[in-house]
Amino acid sequence: MSTNLCTTYRRAGALLVATAALLLGGCQKSDPSEAGPAERAGRKVDEATAKAGSELSQVRETAGQQMSDAAKDTSQKLDKAADTAGQKLNEATQAAGRKLEQAGEKMQEKAREREAAAGTPAK
Questions:
Q1: Sequence-ordered strand ranges (E) for 1-123
Q2: Could you count the other beta carbons within 10 Å of the beta carbon of residue 19?
Q3: Could you give the CA distance from residue 48 to residue 52 in angstroms, rounded to a whole number?
Q4: Is residue 122 within 8 Å of 111, Cβ to Cβ?
Q5: What's this model's pTM, rounded to 2 decimal places?
Q6: What's the pLDDT at 29?
Q7: With the C-alpha atoms ordered 99, 105, 109, 111, is the resulting torsion angle positive or negative?
Q8: d(CA 89, CA 82)
Q9: pLDDT tens for residues 21-46?
């Protein structure tokens, strides 16, 4: 992007130097119906300015599109990461739940064994 901008500035600078040379070369018209050197130089400056503006607009549009694409890509990656993290959290929660259930079953079995050893019926 900056290369295009530098190229545009160089072109505009070269055109300004050429314009200055034309202006310093003289302002006399050889034919009154023709445009003089200053008028021709002014037209060239106008053309260069319009071209530079157009190129800058294109660079700005390209940069804007690249930023938009990067934002979409980042958003998609963040969504995917959030989905993966949510899935891992659900799996961890389910595993913890199974462990707690197993621990509860062991506690109930131990309680039954103690009650059986003590001679009292299990509830």
A1: none
A2: 19
A3: 6
A4: yes
A5: 0.45
A6: 54
A7: positive
A8: 10
A9: 666 555 555 555 677 788 888 898 89
